[in-house]
Amino acid sequence: MSSEGEAKTGRPGELFSPRTLLAIIAIGTAAFVGMIYLEMFGGGDPDLEIGPSTYSSSALGHKALMETLRRLDVPVVVSRFRTAEKTGPDSLLVLAEPDDSETSEQMIGAFGNVPRGLLVLPKWDGSRDRSKPRWVGAMGQVPLEKIEQVLERAQINALVKRVDGTFTLDVPELGGRIELTDPQVMIDARALKPIVSLQGGVLVGEADLGAGRQWVLSDPDLISNHGIDQADNAVVAVSLIESLRPGGGPVIFDETIHGLELRPNLLRTAFELPFGIVTLSAAVAIALAIWAGLMRFGRPEPGQRALQPGKVTLIRTTADLLRQGSR
């Protein structure tokens, strides 16, 4: 092989050329930084949710109800981790339209142990609008079998039916008039005490689960963004919450039942405000400490040549003296 060929392929004995080594280091560094970023911020943006969550501003979401409660100075807690540990006799737990995940099954199964709770049955599925990511492009009704499974997990014996048409109902005890289109009600609900009845079924019922006080709302259109502005639905929805909420207690909306569980992440917290300021200050202090501890930069300066005994040193010294004298 010619010397030119060796120069192109690298020196003999080297595994990688310098350029290849730098590329490997750059790729590895980028992968490491990407891993750290995903670990800290890879949980997704809940504000882009279009489903039945308090983060969603779509037609199916419950953000309007949450914001209404906050503007009325009602303490609201949006829980994304260990919700059961946050509930107590002074709080109201809202399980609004749970999905069919394992977390939802656990939360619904423990609904009877909650001192005060409101279970809202699911009704709609939606797909995202491609041109407007925060909107729902198409909606479809959840099969009745899945809704009845939610009741079964909560140990409530009842069936669900839907009625075609738009109906209004005066509910003076809850402060107004309800308007619902194609309402969803519970029938054969022997384990429920009717609070609000509609079209021969139970719209709002109190469950007899042996402990605490738990209500079930069969139609989520009463509290969802697309239905809360109909007639006096907003007033009735707030009245439902206030009827169950202990005086001054918080309303806890559980979002783990919508797949939005967020476990504590110390690394992510360290880079969020206000902790990010402390992290940045510590990084600068460490960098300055490392800089101050460096011994030197660049090549070392050549040291003074030591004088060694012998004829060579004598001749060199004499030559230096003659050179300097001639100058």
Structure, described:
- With 327 residues, the protein is of the alpha/beta class.
- It is 34% helix and 21% strand.
- It has 9 helices and 13 strands.
- It has a 7-stranded mixed sheet with strand order 1-13-2-3-12-11-10, with helices on one face. A two-stranded antiparallel sheet has the order 4-5.
- The N terminus is likely disordered.
Supply Rg: 35 Å
Q: How much β-strand is present in the residues?
A: 15-25%
Give the count of helical stretches.
9
Mean of all residue-level pLDDT scores: 85
The helix fraction, in percent, is 25-40%
Q: What structural class do the secondary elements suggest? A: alpha/beta
Outline type: elongated
Task: Give me the count of strands.
Answer: 13
**Strand line-up of the largest beta sheet:** 1-13-2-3-12-11-10
Question: Which ranges are low-confidence, i.e. pLDDT below 50, for 5 or more consecutive residues?
Answer: 1-9
